[in-house]
Each structure stands twice: as C-alpha cells, then as structure tokens.
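Appendix C: a fully annotated inverse folding record. The material below is reproduced so that readers can follow the format used throughout the book. The structure is listed first as tokens, followed by the designed sequence.
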C-alpha cells in the first residue's frame, strides 16, 4: 500500500468514524434495543414484534449451489438471508460439548435469545442450572422478562440466575458468577460474539478457567487477526480509528491458542469461520438502510484489515 492510497484510506476511515458516531447519537445505540429491527423480516408486518432477538453477526454458511461467498465483498444484497436464520449460537453450543443436567454460564447474552435457545431447543442437552450476565441494564431486564415468560410454561423449569454487570469480575458486581466466592462451578461457559469487547479477554479467560468444574469447557465465538495483518500499517490504523475492541485483545489466532494453553486449558481448538460470517453479515447490513450500511462498512474495514471470526474452545483438565 503506497502513501497516497494509505492517506486516502485514512481519510475514508475518519469520515466513516464521524458518520458512525453521528448515526449512533442521532438514532440509537446498536447495542441498545436497535437490534430488534434487524430481526424483523423486510417482507413482514413492520409493526409486529420480531420472532427472535439475536444480537450477533450470524452464521451464513450456504451450499455451493447458492455460492454468494465467491468474493468476500462483492455480494448481492438479495442473497443475504434474514438474521434469525443465521444462527451462530448452535455452532457455538456444538463446540462447547454441553452435557445433560450441566451448569452453564452464558456471557453477553443480549436480550436473552441464546438463553431461550438453551432452555427450549430440543436438540440441545438441557442444563439443570443456567446463569447469565450482560452489561446493559435494558438487556438484563428484557432477558428476565423473556425467561420468566418461557419458564412459566415449563413443568420442570431450569434454575436460572441472571446478572447485570461486566463479564469480567472486578469486585463491584454483587454475586458475580465469576467471583471467586460465588457458589458452584460451571460445566460450560459460552461467549457468543462478545469476548473481543471485554477488558480484557485474557482476564475473562483466567476467571472462567478458575470457575470451571473439572473437565468443564469454554467456547467462544470471537474475533482475532492473522499474524501477517497485525504488523501492517493499515490494520494498525483501522483498529486504532474504529476501536471495536481494546488494544490488548488484538491478538493473532496463533497467540489466541497459545494464551488459552498458558492459562491451563487443554484440547484447545480454533476454527476459522470467517467466510461464513463476515461476507453474509456485511451484505445483510448493507441491505437494511443507510444507517446499517455505515455499520456494514465498519465491519468491511475490519475484515479487510485481516480480522478473523473464529470458534475457540478449550477444556479444564
């Protein structure tokens, strides 16, 4: 990348950042309840509530016959399916190896769609205890209401314990599930499309390891980078300007695996599913109006800077 191209890219990023900040202030924070609009079908009743409330980038894998993944960013908008059909959560639960009657912690669950999945999906082992924590009060309250509504129809409801606070325990959240003094250990910990936001991811992994039961597992749908990308000027500029994650979380896939092993996890695996996440999600966003088109461009910049979307899992011995 020559200097003139780099300057043009920096100018574009600054404009994009300005539009992003303005659109968030003018309309609504995408991490409030604005994601509900993304769960609505464009052809459905605009006044009807969405049937799901997913808040993740989705898993957009399609058969070769419908190959819109041939070029990462050259996608036709009509090829992107609705967000409710792109379930990343089931991909994550497979990696977690959930066990029947286990104790599960769901981190960063948004307004509770992943909680409802764990409580109602017949193909998944049913937990005896389900804990959750989310950082936004509006998400916490909505999750409580949605879970209570579902539980009211169950004959033998799972014990559910939801918390409002940061996923990383810092001593300020009462009864935090990752507090050393919290009762009970977890058989599985899930982090669906959120760990790259945490300050820091490593602290979260260390605290999770301490609270896992023997042979317990952790699974994360997360973002890291290629080793080659992290040393380029473009990646450094993109990540500095757009700030989607703390600098300490900017690690390569190799560093991610090494970090997990340093903490004590065994059987660590990292599956790169970038082609099945970023292209479909970007195309989907660009088809939902200009405000979301801007967010799609932010994600396109990250993907172009070498970001990888991965499923990472590990086990406590």
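Designed amino acids, in order:
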């Amino acid at each position: 990348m020559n200097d003139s191209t780099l300057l043009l890219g920096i100018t574009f990023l600054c404009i994009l950042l300005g539009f992003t900040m303005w659109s968030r202030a003018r309309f609504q924070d995408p991490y409030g309840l604005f994601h509900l609009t993304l769960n609505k079908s464009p052809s459905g009743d605009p006044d009807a509530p969405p049937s799901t409330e997913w808040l993740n980038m989705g898993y957009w894998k399609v058969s070769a016959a419908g190959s819109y993944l041939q070029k990462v960013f050259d996608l036709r908008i009509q090829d992107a399916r609705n967000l409710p059909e792109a379930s990343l959560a089931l991909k994550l639960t497979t990696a977690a190896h959930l066990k029947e009657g286990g104790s599960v912690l769901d981190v960063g669950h948004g307004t509770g769609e992943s909680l409802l999945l764990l409580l109602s999906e017949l193909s998944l082992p049913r937990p005896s205890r389900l804990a959750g924590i989310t950082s936004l009060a509006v998400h916490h309250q909505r999750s409580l209401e949605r879970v209570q509504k579902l539980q009211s129809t169950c004959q033998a409801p799972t014990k559910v314990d939801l918390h409002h606070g940061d996923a990383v325990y810092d001593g300020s959240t009462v009864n935090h599930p990752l507090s050393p003094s919290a009762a009970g250990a977890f058989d599985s910990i899930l982090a669906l499309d959120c760990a790259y936001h945490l300050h820091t991811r490593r602290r979260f992994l260390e605290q999770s390891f301490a609270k896992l039961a023997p042979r317990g597992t952790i699974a994360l749908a997360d973002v890291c980078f290629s080793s080659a990308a992290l040393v380029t000027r473009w990646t450094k500029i993109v990540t500095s300007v757009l700030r989607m994650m703390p600098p300490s979380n900017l690690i390569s896939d190799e560093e991610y695996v090494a970090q997990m092993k340093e903490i004590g996890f065994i059987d660590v695996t990292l599956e790169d599913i970038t082609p099945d996440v970023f292209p479909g999600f970007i195309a989907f966003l660009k088809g939902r109006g200009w405000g979301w088109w801007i967010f799609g461009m932010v994600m396109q910049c990250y993907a172009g800077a070498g970001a990888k979307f991965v499923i990472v899992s590990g086990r406590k011995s």
